[in-house]
Amino acid sequence: MDFEILGGIDQVETIAKGNEVRDRARLRRAYGGRQWRKCKGVARVRLLANRMVRLAEVHWYEAHGVGRVEFELSSR
Fold first, then answer.
1. Angle at 71 between CA 19 and CA 50, to 5 degrees
2. How far is 26 from 67, CA to CA, in rounded Å?
3. Which residues pair with 56 in a beta bridge?
């Protein structure tokens, strides 16, 4: 992660769940879990390269018992 999330994530939406998640086999091998979801939301982030604070769309995967993993900034 080349950014740090400051505070909470708002406007959380599920993008894909179950068989719609393309990386589910890799996620199961790496983290366990069964029902994976890919989600997105808006959060205030600090970019580590230049320390700038911005409001950005953040994507991540989550599963019950595992939590949120592999955060990334949207390519917008």
1. 155
2. 16
3. 43
pLDDT digits (tens, 9 = 90+) for 8-48: 999 999 999 999 999 999 999 999 999 999 999 999 999 99
- pTM over the 0.85 mark: yes
Contact 42, 5 (CB under 8 A): no
Residues linked to residue 26 through DSSP beta bridges, in sequence order: none
pLDDT in tens, 16-25: 999 999 999 9
DSSP string, the chain: --EEEEEEEEEEEEEEEGGG-TTHHHHHHHH--SS-EEEEEEEEEEETTT--EEEEEEEEEEETTTEEEEEEE---
